Amino acid sequence: MTKKFDAVVMIGRFAPAHNAHVEMLKRAGALANKVIIIRGSAGQPRTFKNPWIDREIAVMLQSAVADISKENSAEYVIEQVRDYLYNDTAWAAVVQAAAYKHIGDFDSVGIIGHAKDASSYYLKMFPQWKLIEQPLIEPLNASQIRELYFSPTICNMNWFTGVLPESTLNYLRWFKDSPEYEQVVKEKEFIETYKKQFEHLAYAPTFVTADAVVVQSGHVLLVKRGAEPGRGLWAFPGGFLNAKTDKSLLDTALRELKEETKIDVPDKVLRGNIKTSKVFDAIGRSARGRTITHAYFITLQDGEWNLPKVKGADDALEAKWIPLSQVKSEEMFEDHYEILSLCFNTI
Question: What is the DSSP string of 200-259?
């Protein structure tokens, strides 16, 4: 049977894949011989927003599409791409590259999706593909599913019958007994308690922080977080502006750097090696609320001394110089991997 397209692209986070996703994938398979699933937010650490890591999402997606492929004879392929929070063009290029691995230059290609809110703007970022906009299939979304699933005092797995594919439901039943589930619940509860402090305010607060991105001899100085959110993840030394005592945001960054790492470098040297600074203010960069950070990029001179001695202190479990080639996005806090990536385009 001749189909309208050679390939249809569907982009989503699928955290988790639910029946509305499955229905849209069915429709895509009815329109094309090949369906290319682009799963975003790859390489993220395990958090409440991204509670399942890449291989777990892949297992759930592969199981969900196995039966569909038999029904409509379409081939389903899955590509996972990471986010580019501060560079939509770079993200679009990565999505294109992932899709073109499976299509030819002259193939007819569509992109399918439902414009649910402002976050669906990406559907119009690929003018070379014909937009196949779909109406709302079911009044549910993955955010609502995560909210219920990670609320153990009220969660009833029977609620998800008819909402999730059976294979996904079985996986989530298994995952619910894992220590990873408990950690995600702990972070979710922390965030909820944290936000309750500000419920009485007329407007949600905006937080101001500063981070020190210190690099020397191909290494970056990171701390392992000792508190929620992101306990156990690597981050830049940094923290909140102390409105009473910090004379500037630079003072905030250097104070936090010294408190968390005990770095054995004089203040004068640190200040003298600041190459640039940059503001990072993406709306979703922190689960705690709108948080704007000012990052100071400090490049210590190679060869003047060995890597300075550091020691985790204050609220840092550990401070460590890590080779830049060994920094892993799935082990980094919030958008710090993005900041580090942009650092090399800045200094």
Answer: TSSS---EEEEEEEEEETTEEEEEEE-SSSSTT-EE-SEEE--TTT-SSHHHHHHHHHHH
- Looking at every residue in the chain, the average pLDDT score rounds to 93
- Is residue 75 within 8 Å of residue 33, measured between CB atoms? yes
Structure tokens belonging to residue 153: 């005092």
CA 251 to chain centroid, in Å, comes to: 29
Per-domain residue ranges of the chain? 5-140, 207-346
- In angstroms, the CA 250 to CA 309 distance is 22
DSSP for 272-287, written as a single string: HTEEEEEEE--TTS-T
In this predicted structure, the answer to whether residue 347 has a pLDDT above a threshold of 70 is: no
Domain 5-140 in this protein, CATH class: alpha beta
Task: Return the CATH architecture of domain 207-346.
Answer: Alpha-Beta Complex (3.90)
What beta strand segments (E) does the chain contain? 5-12, 32-42, 75-82, 109-113, 130-133, 207-216, 219-225, 234-235, 238-240, 274-280, 291-299, 316-323
Q: Look at residue 309 in the predicted model and tell me its pLDDT.
A: 94
Place of tokens 């990873």: 180
